[in-house]
């Protein structure tokens, strides 16, 4: 339950950020950029990139689990569903609420599905691998996010104030939520 609830919440967080119009989180700037070049949805790109990112696990000695495979298969589907279901915000205040809610949802969702103990998602496996090497969650997550943001920007993905908020807040929020929902 914790695994799939976390994945659904993460997909909702992605949908909130995308629909806000204020800027995607860094991974989704990258996913959007790839989607623009391939003509497929963000969710489809999320699934494909998730499968490819697992190759980076080899040098980090990460091992996939049910959570890893579930992330690859379902996160993109949940994101596409959220984007399809969420109405476009009628005013700027709602856009801000979407952005802030999306960032908090993604941070909590990350801790929930990793904390289920069934294996991190492909992108978070990079983070947990870096943590095992001695980096803090905050620093590991920040370094990953800034790298994919730059790549996504170069691919033409949309960057905005929501992107900056995500990049600055995701590490501290994820670390905060680990106090309430410890990682296994």
Describe this structure in words.
The chain is an all-alpha fold and 184 residues long. The two termini are 16 Å apart. It has helices at residues 2-20, 26-38, 42-53, 57-60, 66-85, 92-115, 122-132, 137-154, 161-180. The mean pLDDT is 91.
Write the layout of secondary structure elements.
Elements (H helix, E strand, L loop, with lengths): L1 H19 L5 H13 L3 H12 L3 H4 L5 H20 L6 H24 L6 H11 L4 H18 L6 H20 L4
Helix pairs in contact: 1-5, 1-6, 2-3, 2-8, 3-5, 6-9, 7-8, 8-9
**Main beta sheet: strand number and arrangement?**
none
Look at the structure and give the mean pLDDT.
Answer: 91
* Alpha carbon gyration radius: 15 Å
Please give the share of residues in helix.
over 70%
Number of domains: 1
Shape descriptor: globular
Low-confidence stretches: none
Tell me what portion of residues adopts beta-strand conformation.
Answer: under 5%
Task: Provide the descriptors you would attach to this structure in a database record.
184 residues, mainly alpha, 9 helices, globular
In short:
Helix content is 77%, strand content 0%. It is mainly α. The chain is globular.
């Amino acid at each position: 339950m914790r695994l799939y609830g976390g994945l659904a919440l993460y997909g909702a967080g992605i949908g909130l950020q995308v629909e806000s119009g204020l800027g995607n989180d860094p991974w989704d700037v990258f996913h959007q950029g790839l989607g623009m070049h391939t003509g497929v949805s963000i969710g489809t790109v999320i699934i494909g990139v998730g499968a490819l990112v697992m190759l980076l696990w080899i040098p980090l000695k990460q091992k996939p689990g049910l959570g890893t495979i579930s992330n690859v298969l379902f996160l993109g589907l949940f994101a596409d569903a959220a984007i399809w279901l969420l109405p476009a915000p009628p005013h700027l205040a709602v856009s801000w609420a979407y952005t802030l809610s999306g960032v908090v949802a993604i941070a909590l969702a990350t801790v929930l599905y990793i904390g289920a103990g069934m294996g991190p998602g492909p992108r978070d496996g990079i983070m947990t691998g870096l943590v095992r090497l001695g980096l803090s969650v905050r620093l590991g997550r920040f370094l990953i996010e800034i790298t994919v943001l730059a790549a996504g920007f170069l691919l033409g993905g949309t960057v905005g104030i929501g992107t900056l908020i995500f990049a600055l807040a995701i590490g501290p929020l994820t670390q905060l939520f680990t106090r309430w929902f410890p990682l296994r």
